[in-house]
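Journal club side-thread
Mid-discussion, someone asked how the predicted structure for our own chain would compare to the paper's figures. Pasting it here so we can look after the session.
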Amino acid sequence: MRIRQLESFVCICELGSITKAAAALNIVQPALGAQISSLEEELGVQLLERGRRGVVVTPAGAYFLGEARRLLEDVAGVKKTLRSFAPNEKEHLSIGLTSSLSSVLAGALAQQFGRLFPTVSVHLVEDMSHLLGERVASRELDIALAYNVPDHKALQSRPLLKESIFFIASPKSPFGTDAPIDMVDLAQATFVIPSDKGQIINLLKEAMNLYHLPLNIAY
């Protein structure tokens, strides 16, 4: 049993297709299929059932999937520990941030990492939330702090905090009161949005679409 076989098996299970897994692993399909066949022969059980609609994990395969993930995590842990014995070799960590988060967290984040992990070189990158998710999925970035990143099979996300969105208007405008603003009233407002692809505009569109109301954007 080889590490490469475990990685291939886990990738096939996560993508649900040998074709997609072969592309993700940059390997031809026959070679990938041979890896799995060899693994099944060594273990003496069928791990995957091949069909026209992709692959289905067998009960034995489902059990082995959990064990394979654990083994790969153990291997990664061993490699990380061994690298700590090379004091002159610096590890690199690339962290993606939105512009708003970067202005608040970048300095403290870099300082804390430098104090806790002196052998790690941190590189901070600013981008929009949806692009940060894509860059992590493509392994261009290691991790990212972003807003409402779309679900992706190659990503794992965890909510860290909730942030309020405020409606800002001139005191002289019809909205310049302390009274709550109704969604119907928002449909009469004209918005100035920093970007048409940012998370704020996406949240606004979702909220307005929920009530079947238009969103008027001037800039």
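Post-session note: The chain is about 45% helix and 15% strand.
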